[in-house]
Write a structure and sequence with these properties.
241 residues, alpha/beta, Rossmann fold, six-stranded parallel β-sheet, 10 helices, 6 strands, globular
């Protein structure tokens, strides 16, 4: 008699300016005995030195595909936050054998992110500035951030590649990858907050849910943009944990 089917490995993909450390509060609460990866995207975290001038979403998706293949596991359940959501969508479309399902958390849309010129300039200028970074993270959150989490966010922002930082602000966030998503065949769930000041619920409904057929939306209230840190239990519930 065969034993229970092993749980699929889980890969947790961070967003702009952060790193795999974003998932600390989710990882420490995981109940399932499954393999968990928290890779750093091209130009961020431990992959900061690999950041390139003008890098695009596809560059990050291909780098991530290489990391996932090198692990020797898969296909993965992928949970991806913010910018990482856009990267994960392209990864799943280009490399379907690597992805079993997608949980997008407050994701950047496949098309250009509706960000005003002033907000874009402030984001660009925050690179290397700890005061601006702390102000940014406090602004986009709605739950109090413990000092450990705030320190982690700022330190990740400070070690990010300037090339990667500016490339996302000026190129990646404006890019439209929608034309590559026609072959997307994995189930997609979108977890988002009605109170997110960074990527608001109207953007999620109009630019994500409305443009990805069959996608399931899971709205929550009371969290800002940093859902994995602010309300990690919501992520665990969406993952079935």
């Amino acid at each position: 008699m065969s034993g229970p089917t092993p749980a699929l490995p889980l890969a947790l993909i961070h967003g702009f300016g952060t790193s795999g450390r974003l998932w600390r509060r989710v990882r420490e609460r995981l109940a399932s005995p499954t393999e968990v990866l928290t890779p750093d995207l091209l130009g961020f975290g431990n992959a900061a030195a690999l950041g390139r001038d003008g890098q695009m979403t596809g560059d990050m998706a291909e780098h991530l595909a290489g990391v996932l293949r090198a692990s020797g596991s898969g296909p993965y359940r992928l949970a991806a936050h913010s910018m990482g959501g856009k990267v994960a969508l392209l990864l799943a479309a280009r490399h379907p054998a690597l992805v079993a399902e997608l949980l997008l958390i407050a994701p950047s849309p496949a098309g250009p992110e509706p960000m005003g010129d002033e907000d874009r300039a402030q984001l660009r200028a925050a690179w290397g500035d700890p005061v601006a970074l702390e102000k940014q993270y406090r602004h986009i959150s709605r739950q109090p951030l413990p000092e450990q989490d705030l320190y982690q966010l700022v330190s990740d922002g400070l070690r990010a590649s300037r090339d990667a930082w500016e490339a996302w602000t000026d190129v990646g966030s404006r890019e439209d990858i929608g034309g590559e998503l026609g072959t997307l065949a994995v189930p997609v769930t979108v977890l988002f907050s009605e109170d997110d000041p960074a990527i608001g619920p109207e953007v999620i409904r109009d630019e994500v849910l409305a443009k990805l057929a069959g996608t399931q939306g899971q709205p929550i209230k009371g969290s800002g943009h940093l859902i994995p840190l602010e309300v990690p239990q919501s992520v665990l519930t969406a993952l079935g944990e």
